[in-house]
């Protein structure tokens, strides 16, 4: 299946999962299992692309260690997108999917800052934006929200670092939630 067709398939299956039968009834549904399998593959691909961009920020700006940048992070107001509904102790599938959609929309917009920061990685950033947008827009069409603003070039660099670090953590949690659903 071409990547555009895959995104369309994922969106259609997730839409059915969110708006169709109750999730307990879908856990053994072949279409739902296919959706989960494809979503896991897609999330792995996106995680790999984010890791490549994180390494580019590290190599280009020597911004590699999150703990060294925490004070600047507070100043920038960049926070982790919440996925508390996707943790196993509080797992609620519908709420988890809603949080994943919201996170994908937020990170799609934030990747514009990374694109400006790493023009040499424009192809990869644009592919990542497209993958993120396809997955999210096939789930639900909405506005992408506001883009981050930075007061200096250094803040832009640190902002790009934290956008990617937060996106990577977000994807890891989303992946675990999808894997959890696949084993129900």
From TrEMBL:
One of its GO terms (molecular function) is cytokine activity. Residues 1-20 form the signal peptide. It comes from the Eukaryota. It is found in: Secreted. Keywords: Disulfide bond, Glycoprotein, Growth factor, Secreted, Signal. InterPro entries: 4_helix_cytokine-like_core, GCSF/MGF, IL-6/GCSF/MGF, IL6/GCSF/MGF_CS. It holds the Pfam family GCSF. Gene3D superfamilies: 1.20.1250.10. Its main location: secreted. One of its GO terms (biological process) is positive regulation of myeloid cell differentiation. GO terms for cellular component: extracellular region. Belongs to the IL-6 superfamily. This is MGF factor. It comes from Hemiprocne comata.
């Amino acid at each position: 299946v071409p990547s555009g067709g895959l995104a369309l398939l994922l969106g259609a299956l997730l839409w059915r999962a969110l708006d169709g039968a109750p999730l307990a009834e879908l856990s053994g549904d072949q279409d739902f299992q296919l959706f989960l399998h494809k979503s896991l593959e897609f999330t792995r691909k996106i995680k790999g692309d984010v890791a490549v961009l994180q390494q580019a920020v590290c190599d280009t700006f020597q911004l590699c260690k999150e703990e060294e940048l925490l004070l600047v992070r507070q100043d920038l107001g960049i926070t982790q997108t919440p996925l508390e509904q996707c943790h196993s102790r509080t797992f609620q599938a519908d709420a988890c999917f809603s949080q994943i959609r919201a996170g994908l929309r937020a990170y799609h917009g934030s990747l514009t800052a990374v694109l400006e920061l790493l023009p040499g990685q424009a192809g990869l950033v644009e592919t990542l934006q497209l993958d993120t947008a396809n997955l999210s827009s096939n789930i639900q069409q909405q506005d992408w929200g506001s883009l981050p603003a930075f007061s200096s070039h250094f803040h832009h660099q640190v902002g790009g670092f934290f956008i990617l670090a937060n996106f990577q953590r977000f994807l890891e949690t989303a992946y675990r939630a999808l894997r959890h659903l696949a084993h129900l």
